[in-house]
Design a protein that fits this description.
mainly alpha; 14 helices; globular; Growth Hormone, Chain: A; single chain
C-alpha cells in the first residue's frame, strides 16, 4: 500500500513540475528540461547503491529516516521557487482541456508520443532483461546490477548533451541521430565479449535515454497551454506503457531466448524513423 502511495506521489510530481520548467528556462528550454530529467535519472542510477549501503550499515529500520532528505528539499523549494502561473484550465474539464489544447496539434503530439513509447519499450526491455542475459553468460549478480547503473549514468550525460544541442539545432536532428544509431549500438552490445560489454552498455544507455527530455519539450512547444498534461503523456503514460510491455517480452524470451528477443527489440528504434521525419520543425 505504501509503495502504491509513493508511486502516486511520484506521478503527481513529475508532470506538474515538468510543466513549470519552461516558465523559468528562458531560451534554453531543452537544456533546462534535460537538467530536470537528469536529477531523476541520476537518482535512479545511484539510489539502489545508496539505500543498500544504508540498510547494510543500520538495517531495514533505518529506511524511513531517508525521508528526511526529501523533506528538507521540499522546504527549500517551497521558499525559493516562485508560485507557478495557472494554465487556466480549472473549469474546462478533462475533455475540454484536450479539445482546447490539442485540437489543432493532436496529430503531431500523437507522433511524438508514439516515438516516446517505442523508446520506452526498448529501454525498459534492455534494463529488465540484459542483467538476466549477463548472469546466464556467467557474469556475476553484481555485474547485472552494475549494468543498470552504467546504462542510466550514460543516459544522464547524453540527456544533458542532447538538451544543449537541441537548443541550437532543434530537436528533430537529435531524435534522428539517436534512433539511427540505437539499433547498431544495441546489437553491438549484445555481441561484445568479456569486459567489452560494459563499454557497449554505456553506449547503449547514451543513445536510448538521450531523447527523453526532448520529447517533453517538443510537445510543450506545440501545446504551451497544456504543459503539464503533455508532460504526463510523454513521461508517465509513454514510460508506463513501455514497462507494461515487459511481461510480453519476458514471455517471448521464455519461448525463444532472452538474446533472441533483445535482438528483435533492438530494431524497434528504426520504426520510429519515418515518424520522426513527420515531426514539426523546431527552430533553435
Amino acid at each position: 500500500m505504501f509503495i502504491g502511495l509513493g508511486s502516486i506521489g511520484s506521478s503527481l510530481f513529475h508532470p506538474s513540475v515538468a510543466g513549470m520548467v519552461p516558465l523559468y528556462a528562458g531560451t534554453r528550454k531543452s537544456f533546462s528540461m534535460s537538467v530536470f530529467n537528469t536529477g531523476g535519472t541520476l537518482a535512479f542510477a545511484v539510489g539502489p547503491f545508496c539505500i543498500t549501503t544504508i540498510v547494510s550499515l543500520w538495517g531495514l529500520g533505518a529506511m524511513p529516516a531517508t525521508m528526511a532528505f526529501g523533506l528538507l528539499v521540499l522546504l527549500y523549494l517551497w521558499h525559493i521557487v516562485p508560485a507557478p502561473q495557472s494554465e487556466g484550465m480549472a473549469d474546462t474539464g478533462f475533455i475540454g482541456t484536450l479539445k482546447n489544447q490539442f485540437g489543432k496539434v493532436w496529430r503531431a503530439i500523437f507522433l511524438i508520443w508514439l516515438v516516446m513509447v517505442l523508446r520506452a519499450i526498448v529501454g525498459q526491455s534492455f534494463m529488465t532483461f540484459m542483467p538476466v542475459l549477463l548472469v546466464k553468460r556467467g557474469y556475476s549478480l553484481v555485474s547485472g546490477g552494475a549494468m543498470i547503473t552504467l546504462f542510466t549514468l550514460a543516459g544522464t550525460i547524453s540527456g544533458l548533451l542532447s538538451g544543449y544541442l537541441a537548443d541550437r539545432v532543434g530537436s528533430r536532428p537529435i531524435f534522428l541521430l539517436a534512433h539511427l544509431l540505437m539499433t547498431p549500438v544495441l546489437l553491438g552490445m549484445l555481441a561484445l565479449p568479456g569486459s567489452w560489454v560494459y563499454a557497449g552498455i554505456a553506449a547503449a544507455g547514451f543513445f536510448v535515454l538521450a531523447t527523453l527530455p526532448l520529447g517533453v519539450t517538443l510537445a510543450q512547444d506545440l501545446a504551451p497551454g497544456g504543459r503539464s498534461m503533455v508532460s504526463s503523456l510523454m513521461m508517465g503514460l509513454a514510460y508506463g506503457l513501455g514497462g507494461a510491455v515487459a511481461p510480453i517480452v519476458g514471455k517471448l524470451a521464455d519461448i525463444t531466448s532472452v538474446e533472441t528477443v533483445l535482438q528483435g527489440v533492438a530494431f524497434l528504434p528504426l520504426l520510429a524513423i519515418p515518424l520522426i521525419f513527420c515531426f514539426p520543425k523546431r527552430t533553435a
